[in-house]
Design goal:
By secondary structure, the protein is an alpha/beta fold. It is about 40% helix and about 20% strand. The protein has helices spanning about 35-55, 65-75, 85-115, 115-120, 135-145, 160-170, 210-215, 230-240, 260-265; strands spanning about 1-5, 130, 155, 175-180, 195-200, 225-230, 245-255, 270-279. About 45% of the residues are buried. Bound molecules: S-adenosylmethionine (SAM). S-adenosylmethionine binds near residues 134, 156, 157, 184 and 204.
Length: about 280
């Protein structure tokens, strides 16, 4: 299955320090603050995307009994690690509960870390692999934010329904060079060089031996990776990988405007992200 996505190259001059402009309403949990401009851009991009998704995937909007059940379950158990969702059966309910929320988190994380020196150090144009892509939230956010970056994007997931949904969503975006790979991903595999987008995949991997494997035989993570996950998972990633990778972690918090609250069913969004760059 193939579709295409328009992506530009990484900005050539990226300043070192990020996220320091004060804003009264948007605080970063690490003590820094997000700028009004960051928030304005995130909200604007989220508006543009959701407008298109209203027509392409109307079933993602709104909640159902199943989506409420899954949301409750993951909010209670998600950070403990392991798989709590049967995606083959519940992919739609999962996405009704989390697609827009995770999309907003990915936009927030990318918009506020894209100028970080660690990402600047990654060569432009590297292929992008979205590991445990689900319906493509991280790749969609990447395509929308990194407009000057033109790699291929490969979405990896072992749930065919998730990838089918991703392909439907990408078909309404102005997108090129997207590939879908329905396979179980393991850190034991040594994928090609490139950049990894990984959101809420690590938390589902309960094999602890894999973590040390990633740390030592780290082809799995390519040249650089941007990982979004629960704070305890981010901490484990940093402690396992800091000898092989430069790391920079951030936490952001944003108060949603009313129209986004209605879509996401939350008042506040928090996201925890770590950037990894091979030493
Ligand atoms: C919590 S969802 C996250 C989806 C998306 N990245 C997001 O942030 O919304 C985790 C996804 O990873 C996939 N997944 C989990 N373990 C996997 C594995 N070992 N190989 C391939 N896909 C996996 C699941 O099928 C699911 O779609």
């Amino acid at each position: 299955m193939k579709t295409s996505l328009q992506l530009p190259s990484l900005p050539s001059a990226i300043p070192n320090k990020e996220i320091t402009v004060p804003s009264p309403s948007v605080a970063c949990a690490t003590g820094s603050v997000l700028s009004q401009r960051n928030m304005h851009d995130v909200d604007k991009i989220f508006d543009e995307l959701t407008e298109q998704f209203h027509f392409a995937v109307p079933e993602l909007l709104g909640t159902t009994r199943d989506s409420r059940r899954i949301k409750l379950k993951l909010e209670l158990l998600g950070s403990k690690g392991g798989r709590f969702v049967d995606y083959d059966q519940d992919y739609l309910a999962f996405n009704q509960a989390f697609f827009f929320k995770n999309l907003y988190k990915c936009l927030l994380a990318l918009e506020n870390t894209r100028k970080c020196s660690l990402l600047k150090a990654c060569p432009a144009g590297l292929p992008v692999l979205d590991i445990g892509s689900g319906a493509g939230t991280f790749s969609i956010a990447w395509s929308a934010i990194m407009r000057s970056y033109t790699p291929t994007i490969e979405l990896f997931d072992n749930c065919f329904s998730q990838l089918t949904l991703a392909a439907r969503i990408f078909s309404v975006l102005d997108a090129k060079k997207i590939y879908y790979r329905c396979e179980a991903v393991s850190p034991r595999q040594d994928y090609s060089r490139g950049l990894r987008l990984i959101s809420y995949w690590f938390c589902e991997q309960d094999d602890h031996a894999l973590w040390s494997h990633i740390a030592t035989k780290n082809g799995f993570l390519g040249d650089c990776a941007i990982v979004i996950d629960y704070p305890n998972v981010i901490e484990r990633i940093i402690s396992s990988l800091c000898r092989c990778f430069h790391t920079a972690s951030f936490s952001f918090e944003a108060e949603l405007v009313r129209r986004h609250r209605l879509i996401i069913n939350e008042d506040i969004i928090r996201v925890h992200v770590v950037l990894l760059k091979r030493k």
